[in-house]
Amino acid sequence: MLFTYASDEFEGRKTGELGQKKAIAFIKEFYQSNNIPSPLGGEDYFQDIPASYFTGDIKASENVLAFIKGSEKPDEIIIISAHLDHIGISSNGDINNGADDDGSGTVAIMSIAKAFNEAKKAGNGPKRSILFLHVTGEELGLYGSRYYADVDPVFPLKNTVANLNIDMIGRVDKKHEGGENYLYLIGSDKLSQELHDVSEEVNKAYFNLEFDYTYNDDNDPNRFYYRSDHYNFAKHNIPVIFYFNGTHADYHRPSDTPDKINYEFLETRTRLIFHTAWELANRHDRIKLN
């Protein structure tokens, strides 16, 4: 799936351009073929964002939304997000495929959605609803997530329990080369200590990944907490976790290609996020703000 999504055919998925239109069609077809519905109804999986919303010469674009309705508390929503766009084609004609950024998060969400849907078909679906939110315009300034959160939240923000945001989970950064599987977690304790505790408990029960909180420091000079789509939910007091593998030499370069993904790590990280979402969706009480 990632070899297709991060192929030259998608032309780097720049917001508003032909490659990005191919990307949203690919995501929609996946959900339709797996009988995972849209919350918008019928064949409409796209939340349209007009060109006027963007700054500069950017064409209209779309978020892609899919949805699994909860069995007991359907009005309470867990949002799992990743950005579908990348930076397009360089001035010299090289295509920036964005396999890790954020093809890895995109295919992770699709795999998580399929797992939730299989559980539902088996009669064991989530008690709370799950929104699978693929946002556009991240690379240009978090436009798609801001549009959803600030302009057109399909579900009331007060009913949104948490946002699990996935942005680059397919590679290994220099700090962790040669080591065990790991993830940077950002934001998990900033609004809800309970969310942080649930995340830790799930990891210890099933995975024992190394959770690295370096970038969660309030004084982190990289300011990653403010630089991906979860922030547009956090600013509305929605608890968030940002899952991230750190940067690498291929970040925002044509060399961020699918052959460089660590697929074993990607699969385990995706399973971790699924189990965390599963726990949030099925626990008796929704997690509380501090």
TrEMBL record:
<dbReference type="Pfam" id="PF04389">
    <property type="entry name" value="Peptidase_M28"/>
</dbReference>
<dbReference type="InterPro" id="IPR007484">
    <property type="entry name" value="Peptidase_M28"/>
</dbReference>
<feature type="domain" description="Peptidase M28">
    <location>
        <begin position="63"/>
        <end position="275"/>
    </location>
</feature>
<protein>
    <submittedName>
        <fullName>M28 family peptidase</fullName>
    </submittedName>
</protein>
<dbReference type="GO" id="GO:0008235">
    <property type="term" value="F:metalloexopeptidase activity"/>
</dbReference>
<dbReference type="GO" id="GO:0006508">
    <property type="term" value="P:proteolysis"/>
</dbReference>
<dbReference type="InterPro" id="IPR045175">
    <property type="entry name" value="M28_fam"/>
</dbReference>
